[in-house]
Design a protein that fits this description.
Elements (H helix, E strand, L loop, with lengths): L2 E4 L3 H8 L9 H15 L1 H12 L10 H7 L5 H19 L6 E6 L2 E9 L2 E5 L8 H14 L3 E5 L11 H10 L3 E3 L3 H10 L9 E3 L4 H12 L3 E2 L7 E6 L5 H12 L6 E6 L2 H15 L5 H8 L3 E4 L3 H11 L3 E5 L4 H4 L7 E4 L5 H6 L25 E9 L1 H17 L3 H16 L3
Parallel strand pairs: 1-11, 4-5, 4-7, 5-6, 7-8, 9-10, 9-12, 10-11, 12-13
Antiparallel strand pairs: 2-3, 3-14
Helix pairs in contact: 2-3, 2-8, 2-9, 3-8, 4-7, 5-6, 5-7, 6-7, 8-9, 10-11, 10-12, 16-17
Length: about 425
Amino acid sequence: MIRIYNKLSREEKSILVQRPQMSNEEIFPFIKQIFDEVKREGDKALKDFTQKFDGVVIDDVKVSQNEIQDAASFLPNDLKSSIQLAAGNIETFHRAQKKGTTQVETMPGVVCWQKDVPIDRVGLYIPGGTAPLFSTVLMLAIPAVIAGCKEIILCSPPQKEYQSIHPGILYTAELCGITKMYKVGGAHAIAAMTFGTESIPKVDKIFGPGNQYVTAAKQLSFQLGMAIDMPAGPSEVLVYADHTCRPAFVASDLLSQAEHGADSQVVFVTPDVGLANQIKLEVMTQLKSLPRKNIAEAALKNSFGMVIPSVEEAFEFINDYAPEHLIIASEYPEPYLISIRNAGSVFSGNYTPESAGDYASGTNHTLPTASAARSFSGVNVQSFMKTITFQHISQSGLQKLAKTITTMARAENLEAHARAVEIRLSSSNEKGL
């Protein structure tokens, strides 16, 4: 059960910031073997691994148009309406992120500008398994479409029940405008997008969460030169709960994250022991009736509560922990927000559950974990773009810059750099310009 710590030293707090680490020593050789086979055998390897790991025999890795069209019939109308409403909010929020061209004349005759250009081909990985994350399709496909990526492909493991990708994922992908979907999951899907096969094209960047094997596969893919969205790991949430919080609300947020997986971590920080015990009691009470009780219970063994009376010290710890999700459980959250420097996504106030961001408020739920929020952002429209800088210099502009460039170039012993300027000016003088 979740532990509560009180009056810890700075050194003890720094230990708690460290996430439970899973050794990759056994996983990486296994992942490399999968990569080697996919690179060598292509589609055949994908079919073999799909039968071995998912228990599904597939003739074609690509999802047919009939499978896409049939998906809607498996879903109740209220779910389809919910997906549509969530898609609208996510599109509204992400469309506002798109930037225009920035241009500035740094000095007379010297014009510089930068332009955001979409990544040509991106691959979206959508987990299946016990929790098919069709919500993740919204979070990845919508910003990719807004960014203007030329080709967007989606990989997700097939389900035995449907002999294809879960219909919720197919329906959502079609709603977002994705047409190229593949019945491939796990590390072999990441390998396929890394190298390309007869059916699946090699992409320029891979997005999406996954289990420890998918995470390790993305790390290996990155080592092989593939761009990925961010370092990823098990889901996590940290709740800061002051005296105006609702302990039952706090407990529900902790459990909503704990039910993601046994390796998830949930943490709460509060000013006093009495409040900490109330939250712990609520967690124990609500846990009893959860369908995924066993998973949440396992996650709670990796989790803890912390009593820190000082707000300043509390947020020093929170920023050091740099949670994927940070909830400010308070009737008056505004004063705390200014103290937040490191977090993937922040949920402000007693009536802002983390699950709102997971599904429908509009923000993205693909976020950095394991303290990566100290330096990484969550997925957004810019994640699907790269920035190119441009410059145009007139003859008079180069004359004004010449002395600065040649002086600096020669100080670095780069004579050709200096001559590239001088040859232009001497050529202009010869022409009488």
